[in-house]
Amino acid sequence: MELPDNISVQVIDNSGKGVEGAIIELKVVAGTKNPYTILSPKTDKSGSTQISKSDFIGQFEDHWEMGLMDYNGNIETANNNIEIYLYNPEWAIENKDSCMAWPLLKNEIPLWSSREEKYEYITSCNNSKYKAKNQTVNISDSNNITVKVSK
Q1: Rounded to two decimals, what is the model's pTM?
Q2: CA dihedral sign of residues 130, 94, 120, 86
Q3: Domain residues of the chain, as ranges?
Q4: Per-residue pLDDT tens for 22-52?
Q5: What CA–CA distance (Å, rounded) separates 89 from 146?
Q6: Which residues, other chains included, contact 99 with Cβ-Cβ below 8 Å and sequence gap of 6+?
Q7: Tens digit of pLDDT for each residue in 75-103?
Q8: 30: closest CA among 60, 69, 75, 82?
């Protein structure tokens, strides 16, 4: 995978206004087992967010810590075509006990003081207010991505 230093995402509504508080999910295929999923930070007031190369790689590596049997492949051989969509917090909201069962993973420890803090962050996003079509982009060609949402 040819990963840019930063992946910039802009989330806008039908009127072109930025959407604050949205989390974007990126689905990456590497190997023959489960895809890897990467979450963006919440969008700011202008609807912008960035995923740094180091955060992307860190989240990718954390999948191995979660379940070695469930993943194979690596970031070097991952497909450059990735799927981008609004993160859906419903499963996490409905299954809090399962979400809280894991300790913080290696690359989460510098970002969060506890699993509870991360859980509150991802479940408090504004995503349930919006709908968006999934899109596929070649990440090596496109590090400025626009996601259009509707209510």
Answers
A1: 0.92
A2: negative
A3: 6-130
A4: 999 999 998 787 888 999 999 999 999 999 9
A5: 21
A6: 92, 115, 119
A7: 888 999 999 999 999 999 999 999 999 89
A8: 75
